[in-house]
Amino acid sequence: MTDRWIEVDGRPAVPVSGELHFSRVPRRDWAERLRLLRSGGITIVSTYLFWIHHQPSPDAPPRFDDGLDVGAFVDLAAACGLDVVVRIGPWCHGEVRNGGFPDWVQAAPVRHRTDDPGYLELAAGWYAAVGAELASRCGPDAPIVGIQLENELIDQPEHLVTLKRLARGAGLSAPLWTATAWDGAELPADEVLPVYGGYGDGFWSDADAPWAPGFRAQFRFSHEWDDPGIGADVRGATAGPRPPRPRDPRFPAATCELGGGMATAYHRRPVPGADDVAAVAHVKLGSGSAWQGYYLAAGGLNPGDGLQESLATGYPNDLPRFDYDFHAPIGAAGELAPSHAALRMQHAFLEAFGDRLARMTSSLPDALPVDEDDVATPRWALRSDGSTGFLFVNVHRPHEPLEPVADARFELRLADREVVLPAEPIDLPSGTMARWPIGLELGGLLVRWATASAVTVLDGDLPTLVLLADDGVRVELSVGDDLVSHEPAEEPTLHRFGALDILVLPASDAHRLWVLTDDETRRLLRCEYPPWIEDGSLVVRAASEPAVDEWDAAAGDFRPVPFEAEVRRPEAAAPTATLLRPAADVPVRYGGTPQRTAAPDHARVAELAAAYELDGLPEPRPGVRRVLTVDWAGDVATLEVDDEVVADRFWDGTPWHVDLDAIDAASPRTATLRILPLHPEAPVRLDEDAAARRAATPGPLCSLDAVSVEQSVRWRERT
């Protein structure tokens, strides 16, 4: 590591880490979730070890078996081509009760999260247990490349040093020790790599609070990395924000919590869209990020009831009892959100160009937005090493859209020349996120500039630079002495410049593009379903035979890839929902505080919710994954199997996907769906679409629109 970049295997790189909580994902699903992370361009999986999951009682040692086997998880991640960062606490947060402390630790008469000897004795015992599982997976050639100490500890630098000493004493070691650095955190000098975050929206604001400036700031390029908003609700309103601290120039700018989505609290239910998630990450790259870290990359379910953060356990928010989908790129049921595609194009770019980008510093234009309300000033940044670089442009922001940029032209000052592009001014529609190559040498030619976003480079008889057209933006390629300009096409366009091919893909293909690496060879695919490489061949999970096209450089076109199912496909399922009891009248609120209304408990849901019996759920079968989708509207929904609640959800306008195999729901057992109405005056904040449906519904909102089940199997490439 240098003061500007991270090195991987001795070369500069921009690592991409994504959070997946192994104890919130069924063990049988670990391998597929990890492969989906890797096929999405993530290179490091990070994970919390929630003490409360492992040792609920002091009368028994911590458990590391079955779905709590962190050692097996680390080994599997390595087998899937991922390095690992373990976030060992002892306090983690992660919307877990007590921040992850077991109740008996929370109740201990000690000064928690300090160097109080009584607390250190407890922490040392936890670290010793973790070390017994992971010490053998630490070392120069081991998969664990980072260890995070604590989380969001802003004023105890000496305690972080003590925790590091305890962890080392337990046999834990890694090339990188990290600590979260937002909200003016005081970190011990030279002991930890400061890591930052950035969320475009958050559940931690009050229900009646507007979209906060801290969220809005994530959509403009800046060299300020501190964010006082993250975790402010847990620290309490009385603490107030701390003055931001400048980034330590001795370390590269690294992140661990770029919002891969957002959790749903009862009182506030944001739904970040794919472009919202991608824009935050895009802006951080243009601002100089040396490490892209996402929270979360894959959602999950709490492994037991009552483990969530709640008002009843002294926290300021009520979270669902089980659901921790987080609107992540990979949802709790293993379904991909549109953000997976939006991010994986950025990650393909980093895999291909990260060694160059890592060496490039970020510079901002002279004319910057005057404040967060300035929606007209163009937002862009240049990362350059003085002779080559990438221009990052952002015209996307949720809730308060940025204005289109008319007649855009950029004057870039490099060390040896000035570059003005494009040749003719172009319009940039609202929503544009561009990363345009500047002065890029490939195949012995100089790509002076391109007004299409860089994706990757494919090897072949000639190298192929792959670009993705930005929606509604004219494509201009300045290569050597040639200048080619055309409007965006609906089909791929191949340009040949001597010893270099440039493939421009249409923006409409972005959602189905994949760049996978097989034995150092990159493969460019178009596929609607998620593919990955396993044992040297492509594997796709799909409900029907997948249509997969692969770019064939020799033919200059996409060619179909044949597949065959690994198991026999089941017959289509047709579940039904029969109303057992209509909903009753619901109150405006169920208690709580003036700022945060409380979620109803199970007794109130059982008393007031509409109840439906689900029939026709397919039986479990080896090799088949069953996902129930519930399209609904209301306040809270629960799914019961034999009268036991096994899944729940707060309504935010999006479908609810439930992995039936994870909750063991199969006929002839009884499955009951309950939907609690949402009172029109309930102090619950919804995003625009859900709020519009709520406003258009007279009286309480309660609707079951549809239920369906998709049964998918694995398909393997036929060779």
At a glance:
The chain has 719 residues and is α+β, with helices and mostly antiparallel strands.
- Average pLDDT works out at 96
Q: Could you tell me the number of beta strands?
A: 42
* Structure annotation, total helices: 13
Strand content: 25-35%
Biggest sheet details: 8 strands, parallel, barrel
Structural class: alpha+beta
Report on this structure.
- The chain is of the alpha+beta class.
- The protein is 17% helix and 33% strand.
- The chain has 13 helices and 42 strands.
- The chain has an 8-stranded parallel beta barrel with strand order 3-4-5-6-7-8-9-11. A 7-stranded antiparallel sheet has the order 14-15-16-19-20-23-24, covered by helices on one side.
- A hairpin with a 2-residue loop joins strand 23 (475-479) and strand 24 (482-486).
- The longest helix has 20 residues, at 338-357.
- It is globular and about 75 Å long.
- The mean pLDDT is 96.
List keywords for this structure.
42 strands, 33% strand, 719 residues, alpha+beta, 17% helix
SSE order and pairing:
Blueprint: E1 6-8, E2 11-13, E3 16-20, H1 30-39, E4 44-48, H2 51-54, H3 70-79, E5 83-87, H4 103-106, H5 117-134, E6 144-148, H6 157-169, E7 176-180, E8 193-198, H7 213-216, H8 232-235, E9 254-259, E10 268-269, H9 274-286, E11 292-298, E12 300-301, E13 323-324, H10 338-357, E14 361-363, E15 379-384, E16 389-394, E17 405-413, E18 418-428, E19 433-442, E20 445-450, E21 453-458, E22 464-468, E23 475-479, E24 482-486, E25 493-497, E26 500-505, E27 513-518, E28 521-527, E29 531-534, E30 537-542, E31 548-552, E32 557-560, E33 563-565, E34 576-581, H11 602-608, E35 610-615, E36 625-633, E37 636-641, E38 644-650, E39 656-659, H12 660-663, E40 671-676, E41 685-686, H13 688-696, E42 703-717
Parallel strand pairs: 3-4, 3-11, 4-5, 5-6, 6-7, 7-8, 8-9, 9-11, 10-41, 22-26
Antiparallel strand pairs: 1-2, 12-13, 14-15, 15-16, 16-19, 17-18, 19-20, 20-23, 21-22, 23-24, 25-26, 27-28, 28-31, 29-30, 30-42, 31-32, 33-42, 34-35, 35-40, 36-39, 36-42, 37-38, 37-40
Helix pairs in contact: 5-6, 9-10
